[in-house]
Amino acid sequence: MSDDGAATGDDPATDDGAAVVAAVEAVAERIEDERDHLTQLDSAIGDADHGGNMARGWAAAADAARDLDDPDPETVAKTVGKTLMGEVGGASGPLFGGSLVFAAGELGDGITPESAVAFAETYLEKVEDRGDARVGDQTVVDALTPAVHTFKKSIEVDDLPPIEALAKAVAAAERGVAFTVPIRARKGRASYLGWRSVGHQDPGATSALFILEELLVVAADRLGVDVPETDAASPTIPDDDPDEAAEDGPAGGADLEGD
């Protein structure tokens, strides 16, 4: 795919689909590499199975994506989402996989800046709905929200090239992951710990960051450019008093802490 969203091959859908397959393979490898780290994070505030569940699910998703014949982006995304739903245990399967199935429809006409923004927004919306979580609850939403908002603003307001917008989104997600450490968990098993959850990094948010980082690397490779060096400050992440922001989140909801 070119920097403006146009594919470089004879068949744009096939070319974009191959890029998505490559991204899924890269994510699977990264999650496997980070399996122990994710398990350690989940051991502190969950049931210590997030690393194994995610590694198993993404490995199966990569296999399923490779088995597709001349796939288009929507088909790859739906296949990966359904595989994650079937292979990843706990809440992470429906959150990471089920949300992907819904968002995949935004890629029906291929990957463009516009469809990428629509995909990201739909994915975030479905994750929020499924987990009833918002920024400040110490969940994957704390990483996804600044990433998606930053990506959208970079494309639609700042008119940046998609690769630069994605780099800024990754930087925003990294900041969101850091934000989960000093706040109290309001959702999932981690919320049962009360104030003892403070000081622990959310494993689901961390997984989301790893996924975004690999998407950026693969996108840069497909475009034949270096990964942009950038940072991003997202106004969607409260700066002054993270605990006060967390108190504003809704109570209840599904387990989001990263099963």
UniProtKB/TrEMBL annotation:
Residues 238-247 have a biased composition (Acidic residues). SMART domains: Dak2 (SM01120). Gene3D superfamilies: 1.25.40.340. Keywords: Kinase, Transferase. It holds the Pfam family Dak2. Residues 227-259 are annotated as: Disordered. InterPro entries: DhaK_L_YcgS, DhaL_dom, DhaL_dom_sf, Dihydroxyacetone_Kinase. Residues 18-217 form the DhaL domain. SUPFAM superfamilies: DhaL-like. It comes from the Archaea. Its EC number is 2.7.1.121. One of its GO terms (molecular function) is phosphoenolpyruvate-glycerone phosphotransferase activity. This is Dihydroxyacetone kinase subunit DhaL.
